[in-house]
Amino acid sequence: MCTLKTIVFDHFKELSSKTNGPEFKTYDAFPPVVTTKANFDDLLVPADHPSRSYSDTFYVTSDIILRPHTSAHQTQLLRQGDMAFLVAGDCYRRDEIDASHYPIFHQMEGVKVFDPKDLSSDPAVAEKQVMDDLKASLEGVATKLFGQRNMRWIDAYFPFTHPSAELEVEYNGKWLEVLGCGKIHHKIMENVGLGDRQGWAFGIGLERLAMALFDVPDIRLFWSDDPRFLNQFQAGKITKFVPFSKYPMTSRDVSFWYDPEKFHDNDFFAIVREAAGDCVENVQKVEEFVHPKTKRCSKLFRINYRSLERTLQTEEVNVWQENVRRVLSQQPGIELR
Ligand code: FA5
Ligand code: MG
After folding, report:
1. Which atom of ligand 1 is nearest to the CA of 209?
2. pLDDT class of 245 with cuts at 50, 70, 90
3. Which of 146, 191, 217, 290 is found 20 to 30 A from 178 (Cα to Cα)?
């Protein structure tokens, strides 16, 4: 992550000197504990937005959280007068379980505010100038990192930017989303005292970048202390990952009745992470239905267990599966089937 952080930091330093643009200040030591005000309110995230819920975000108290994105620092830095900056840091989310999602990951936020004299006075033209500069800057980083890999822009939605976009990179025959970005919402600019200015912002997932860059197939590998993984990489160098053989997978199903008001998929994923740890490669939702007479809701999940380091024993998988079932059965409104 450090190698990547340095590459992206350096890229933007170079960019500002080449274009005579503002110098990007860099930050990488803000504590990950932030207020809901900085993380949500200041970014115009609506009161009922799912990202605010306990099933998406880790709450410390009702108004203190572990940051789910580095955008948490955006308005504070704009208010203090930074016109171009990069913020790297660890982020925390309750999320799906698969090869590209992990509850802890790293993001880098980038923000650039334009001098009004560098933009057209026609708002529509200015908007296009901002978006073109944003996309060109990010394509520059992406091309530097990935060379000839296929990439595509797709439209996106974020409460704090408009217009918004996401960049995807082709990886293992699939599109892997690596970043979100957009023109900073004018209300945010007004709130931080920059109502006469325009700017762009982006947030890159550093593990996703690293996966595509180093050919790492599974995000869990970044947390592995297996020497077969670690010894393949050296600080500051980009080398391709040579896969070691995949060990066999063991699958176990669990199905249960639940109360849709009280229990969300992310609650299930959190229980699985907690009870069974890193040997879960992914969790698939196999079935979901509402009983036609009783109207009770049921779900069936398949937990696929596989270690990156060894063949799992049936007994240990049984213990994890039992843990999952036990913790699950203690949740309000849950009845195992
Ligand atoms: C955001 O977090 C926005 N703050 C990005 C942004 C910043 C938009 C500034 C506009 C302006 P999103 O939730 O899509 O967006 O996450 C951004 C990136 O973080 C993703 O593309 C992905 O690369 C990475 N990411 C998100 N969740 C995870 C996860 N669970 N594991 C690993 N990487 C993740
Ligand atoms: Mg996204």
Report:
1. 23
2. low
3. 191
